[in-house]
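Progress note, sequence design subtask.
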């Protein structure tokens, strides 16, 4: 597994070695000790999640506040997504900046999103299946979100690439999420 540092500190792209033959393809998606936390300890995951989405579905931008903050290891089992993260760490030099990473079942890449980031994704195909492992369990009282189309963050979701999709499909919660300037910095 090749692990690449991305532009935002702590954000990593995991690129698996693919073993192909006439039967198909095999790759390793996780091994204990592959990633370390801020103290140099192997990551421990507390919860696995799976979502299946229609093309044009946008889920995000979600986070959980400390002490229940979650790191997430995100991968696509079917279809493809644009995965987006926003740095919400108050003391970070990249505070308020975002990064967008294409992930697909074909490329097998995974995105490590440490605690302290808002996270969301746009499904680029029907039946897109996203799996993510979380370092902390879901804690409803700690959850938060920011608007997917916050003009101060200005994520380019590339909606024009979806053809006749004019606006993303959103949950009610995501449709009314606050702007970044209207929340207390959660980290």
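Output:
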């Amino acid at each position: 597994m090749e692990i690449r540092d991305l532009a935002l500190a702590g954000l990593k792209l995991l690129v698996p070695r693919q073993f192909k033959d006439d039967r198909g393809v095999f790759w390793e998606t996780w091994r204990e000790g592959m990633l370390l936390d801020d103290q140099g300890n192997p990551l421990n995951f507390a919860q696995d999640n799976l979502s299946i989405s229609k093309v044009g579905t946008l889920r995000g931008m979600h986070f959980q506040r400390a002490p229940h903050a979650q790191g997430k290891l995100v991968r696509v089992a079917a279809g493809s997504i644009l995965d987006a993260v926003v740095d919400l760490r108050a003391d970070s030099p990249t505070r308020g900046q975002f990064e967008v990473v294409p992930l697909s079942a074909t490329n097998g890449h995974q995105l490590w999103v440490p605690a302290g980031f808002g996270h969301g994704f746009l499904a680029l195909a029907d039946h897109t299946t996203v799996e993510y492992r979380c370092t902390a369990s879901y804690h409803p009282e700690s959850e938060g979100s920011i608007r997917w189309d916050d003009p101060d963050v200005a994520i380019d979701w590339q909606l024009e690439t979806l053809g006749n999709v004019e606006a993303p499909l959103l949950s009610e919660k995501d449709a009314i999420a606050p702007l970044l300037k209207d929340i207390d910095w959660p980290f």
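Helices lie at 172-175. Work on this subtask will continue into the next period as scheduled.
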